[in-house]
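Project outcomes to date are best conveyed with an example. Our students and postdoctoral researchers have been running inverse folding experiments weekly, and each run begins with a structure described purely in tokens. The record below, which covers 315 residues, was selected by the lab manager from last quarter's runs and is presented without edits.
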């Protein structure tokens, strides 16, 4: 793991780079902050997203913007932060068909490791470098530039784009060949989802028995049940400031996205006959939340699901 560079990224850029060094595709809760950090460090950036208000915000910060993915053909490096495997596949195919002249693709989406590996092979066949670099650290980490990047791909490709990653994150971990970064991310999110359900279950139980959630959370955070879902992202409203639970579960990592990642994780585990009984049970819980139209809420809203509070629907 390497700490974030203290040097401005402009020190690393050569005069041979194309008009736009980086094309950033996918400006959700995470991607918008990651792109903003690149801009703040002097990167020439072109941005694309279907959400026009986010694109306009980046334009106000100095980004060049486009309403067509094909307009990214002049970008030397492409960064994608997209919802699913088909989105990434389609974007790669579109840019290759349009004659993308760049060198390196960084995919920070969370997708199927097998698909990620095949995309790497396709890009390499075109003389391009590709790394899968999914992230951990949440919306706060994206805004602060302290994300952890789990990287799969050739060491030489990683080194060529390390300065960009160092602007967006504080930890860069080379996991192995293409696809291994995605494997690491899915394992991480599998554990995180299970921990969140367990944390929510315990807090709900304590509350139901009359124990102040703040007191219980304080005990948990200094005891053997301590975990990120409790001490940094607590799902009980009012226990922590600045987390989705204290903002009506808005602005975090959506339950529908967690369900997608659990599906990828359990599918990948099944392919190699790795048992995931808790992962399967957690996936069922998030599936039920999706059916109750809670998919847009942060995944910590599982606490409300356990309480039977599911908006206009009865849990």
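After processing, the design step wrote out the following sequence:
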């Amino acid at each position: 793991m390497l700490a974030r560079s203290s040097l401005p990224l402009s020190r690393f850029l050569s005069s041979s780079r194309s008009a736009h060094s980086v094309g950033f595709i996918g400006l959700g809760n995470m991607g918008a902050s990651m792109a903003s950090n690149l801009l703040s460090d002097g990167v020439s950036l072109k941005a694309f997203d279907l959400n026009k208000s986010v694109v306009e915000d980046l334009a106000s910060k100095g980004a060049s913007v486009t309403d067509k993915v094909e307009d990214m053909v002049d970008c030397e490096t492409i960064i994608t932060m997209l919802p699913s495997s088909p989105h990434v596949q389609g974007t790669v195919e579109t840019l290759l068909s349009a004659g993308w002249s760049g060198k390196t693709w960084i995919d920070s989406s969370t997708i199927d490791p097998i698909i990620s590996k095949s995309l790497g092979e396709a890009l390499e066949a075109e003389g391009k470098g590709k790394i899968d670099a999914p992230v951990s650290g949440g919306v706060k980490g994206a805004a602060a530039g302290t994300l952890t990047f789990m990287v799969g791909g050739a060491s030489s490709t990683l080194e060529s784009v390390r300065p960009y990653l160092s602007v967006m994150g504080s930890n860069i971990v080379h996991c192995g060949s293409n696809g291994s970064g995605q494997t690491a991310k899915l394992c991480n999110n599998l554990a995180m989802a299970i921990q969140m359900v367990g944390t929510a279950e315990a807090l709900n139980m304590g509350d139901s028995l009359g124990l102040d959630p703040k007191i219980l959370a304080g005990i948990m955070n200094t005891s053997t049940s301590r975990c990120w879902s409790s001490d940094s992202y607590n799902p009980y409203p009012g226990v922590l400031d600045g987390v989705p639970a204290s903002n009506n579960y808005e602005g975090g990592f959506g339950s529908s996205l967690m369900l997608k990642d659990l599906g990828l994780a359990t599918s990948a585990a099944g392919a190699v006959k790795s048992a995931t009984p808790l992962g399967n049970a957690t996936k069922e819980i998030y599936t039920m939340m999706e059916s109750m139209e809670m998919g847009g809420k942060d995944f910590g809203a599982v606490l409300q699901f356990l309480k039977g509070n599911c908006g206009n629907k009865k849990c």
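The chain has twelve helices and eleven strands. The two ends are 43 Å apart (CA to CA). The training component of this project remains on track.
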